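pipeline/complex-builder :: batch 7 item 3
reading input block
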Amino acid sequence: MLALSTRPVVLDPHATVNACASCDARPHSVCNAIPDSDLARLTAIATVTHAQPGTTFIQEGDPATHFFNISSGTVRMYKLLPDGRRQITGFAGVGHFLGLAVSETYAFSAEAIDTVRFCRFSRARVRTLLDDYPKMEKRLLEVASTELVAAQDQMLLLGRKTARERLASFLMMQARQGVMCQTSRTRFPLPMSRGDIADYLGLTIETVSRTFTKLRAEGFIDIPSASEITIRAPVALEGMASGLS
Amino acid sequence: MLALSTRPVVLDPHATVNACASCDARPHSVCNAIPDSDLARLTAIATVTHAQPGTTFIQEGDPATHFFNISSGTVRMYKLLPDGRRQITGFAGVGHFLGLAVSETYAFSAEAIDTVRFCRFSRARVRTLLDDYPKMEKRLLEVASTELVAAQDQMLLLGRKTARERLASFLMMQARQGVMCQTSRTRFPLPMSRGDIADYLGLTIETVSRTFTKLRAEGFIDIPSASEITIRAPVALEGMASGLS
DNA sequence: GGCGGGCATTGATCTGGATCAACGCCATCC
DNA sequence: GGATGGCGTTGATCCAGATCAATGCCCGCC
């Protein structure tokens, strides 16, 4: 539960001219609102950075000075109660944009699960950039709206679904690799631990483990290793996820 | 749980010229991004409408054709599971803006709790308006970001707080009259039923009722009538809400 | 290869909140 | 004023998932 407090490492403080042009995340990300011809402006305000597993790079309550754009790896966002109870509000992968906030402080913390590479932008500079690219502003609104819909789904899950339905929902969501993509995989890795899954679904580690075991025993899934899942009955699981049965 | 299916009543199909200028909600709402001098454009695309208690005016899954702006009354937004389990994702009051969505369909349903007055805007027309008022787009992004933060708080509540902490959080939030305002009231009405509160907090009616009774017995609150609350120990309740004790 | 530590699994027991079941309190309407 | 029906409250019991407690498994390291 406790994070290493090592600072993220800056790979390239004055990012090379084509850093953004060759970025893996660009096709998936809000950056694609900026035309190739103007990429230099984006590159100029981006700092390419990476974070080791377990590093906290956004701390709830700290002044919200930067935006982040994930180019590889997986991040967990979470909120804590004073006694250590944790709620993971989401996992962020390639192309995901972090740090939207009206308030002057971050509303959540973010930690690297595996090695994470990301671009960091100062909020002040992004604001001036936005004035010149209304299309980017539109993209951000789209992103925020999409996340709002996902958040409402998660409220339904946390407030009203059973442990079994929560796990089924989680697995089918991972199969779609996050929220972005529509194509569904039948075999995929789970970069996060059982503890992370538990804190995301509002359950305990033990309940997550037992429910996985049960779903396997019933033939819905396979668990080749603790961090890998095969979906055997996608339709049944999708039904389970949406509360049928 | 079931809603009346009466349609909302259109009060003024071609809204009077100064409808927006004299609107009670304008100071609290996204509309204030449009200068007084240009209000006619806003008025021209607004339809002033009201809905009787229990009326469903947004239906999850229906084509998302309109935006809504509440000018008085209280609305519940919710999602249902096929067997009728319900999660209320939020209550919307004066100035609240509904209907943000990337998708072509609404992601949630919305019902009037009491008599609700609102403005309705066609999405297509709002889109063209937005092109002329980038400031309005910025306001929408602010609104979406604020709601996202509120949604994350609600996830923490639903995933990790006890019944007692949930009720304390709910009461302190109502005392701040929704999310917008900062000034905290010590006595206020609860327009929603115990069932609504339960479905908002991921509890049952019985647990809500019992917990209210207990908080009163312990001297934290008073319940002059079922739909009215007095906060007696705001500091203690705030602590309880954030998970201390 | 054996040791240590961090996950994950599995079993036994407990409990907060759900469920089931009355009952009370108003309003509204004959 | 008495019947009706929709909340809300209260009590008794139950159970899904939490908690407590081993045990297993894997991987890195000496």
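note: The CA atoms of residues 169 and 241 of chain A lie 4 Å apart.
queue -> next item
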